[in-house]
Amino acid sequence: MRRRRDVGEATDIVAHDAARRALQRRVLVVVAVTQVLGGAGLAAGITVGALLAEEMLGSRGMAGLPVGLFTLGSALTAFLVGRLTQRAGRRAGLGAGFAAGALGAAGVVLAAVTGDVALLLVSLFVYGAGAATQLQARYAGTDLALPAERGRAVSVALVATTFGAVAGPNLVEPLGTWATSLDIPALAGPFLLAGTAYAAAGTALFLLLRPDPFLVARHLAAASTPVDAAPVPGDRPPGVWAGAAVMVLTQVAMVAIMTMTPVHMQAHGHGLGAVGLVISIHVGAMFLPSLVTGALVDRVGRVPMAAASGATLLLAGLTGALAPGDSLVLLVVSLTLLGLGWNFGLIAGTALIVDATPAETRARTQGSVDVLIALSGAGGGAVSGVVVAGTSFATLALAGGLLAVLLVPTMAVYRRRVAA
Q1: pTM (two decimals)
Q2: CATH fold for domain 2-419
């Protein structure tokens, strides 16, 4: 019944571009609200996940396991959310994903209280659903955007994440204190926030995202309206693979370095407050520049911004590799560049994907690409602890930067294929 009502409202929108724009503004407001909530859940868990695993498993070499597990969970969720969205719309897909993330966060807290390592591992896997859904929500902002507006539409969703994502890491210490007062291990405290935030995000999205933008956009495409008209100049099918390559390479580099930064800092005498500060600045750099980045992606182009992502991530890796372990300032610089380079790559890559896909297959393709992103992040997170344990954090940072700079030749190849 709800889907038929969405399509009925879409019929009225078809003939009125002003109505489409009004609905697009509403969609962006709802997406922004859910991104604030989801961002808090995502960042809080990221900040202490590696530390909790190290504490419960008793091995620094296993500290990258949490990111690997919840990123694998993210991969499965991205696939399922994409399929569910293609059939039933954004509300159903994203609402279910956030609900699963909340359940996983609750399981992590229970595992920490009981000391159950098996439950911890399973719960971290389920917790990854929240991260996948948080990332997939950016596509909802592009459903009704014109081709020349897609970079900015993605940026609105991402910049909203900043408020929750920056607050999350800075609440680590007070949440730990509160958790301890409840006889819950301090490192499980941020997962209490994560579960609540994910549940609130899913509820708000399911109740407020009406009519469903994906269902409306699909109806508009079927009616051959200007909303889903010809793609931006130079668009070709290779855009899917180019966009995927951009997001995969940036994800591997970012996740690998970010995952081991808290462990590296703690080993050099930095407290949880300093760890939270560095991670919050990093997460802010991931999302806060989005409005500017989105405008640049639309005006300067997808390809130049993707290449800029590779160069920025190389600088991040070099800075992290050369920074003394006790230098908080240089670690902040490295993690800021790391977040900024990821931001460039995510927005440019997302725009490439949306440009290259028709509404009839768009959600499935988006979900499939996000599976690749999640799996690459899982690999980067899982391997990062082993690399640091076997060599050093400097080696990891340098390797991440060199991997990301491959974006430059990748974009050169894509541009030649488009021009052919």
Answers
A1: 0.78
A2: Growth Hormone; Chain: A; (1.20.1250)
